[in-house]
Amino acid sequence: MIKRFIFSYEFLRKMDKEFDLKNYYKKDKSIDFISTYKGNTIQSFLEYFEGKVKVEIDKENQIMRIYLDDFSSAKSYQMLSSLLLFSEEFVNGVNEKLVNKQIAIAGSAVDSLMERIKELRKTISEKQILHNVASPMAEFEQLNGTILALESDLLKQQSSLSEMEAYLSPN
After folding, report:
1. 125 within 8 A of 53, measured Cβ to Cβ
2. What span, in angstroms and rounded, lies between the C-alpha atoms of 29 and 36?
């Protein structure tokens, strides 16, 4: 992905804007007449630039080596530094887009699930009303309350009976 970016028009425009590459590679023919840029189109300049840059990718170790053939080692260092900076910005931009896309997908899934839950609640409520049935939990709570009330009454009656038996018992 980075290799494609490095050999793209977008990257070349950034580098040309930063270093005025076309003029730089055209201007000093006394240094190396053969290596100077002679074209006029962006396509020919991209092809020329591709000849100046070599990208090696070691997939096993996940290392990328970038070489730049230039007239000056100091200029090569500056251009490689910018190349790394632009590549990092590119990767960060791609990562940000991917994260935003994943967040949007997750958000959409959550919204969809919440909507489905609302629909299911509505359907359950409509069926309870249609069949005159309360919710199972409400029925359980109601029955449990009735049972507790009856048990309480039973205990009171048993206690009352025990008191009466104690009163009637001939001691």
Report:
1. no
2. 6
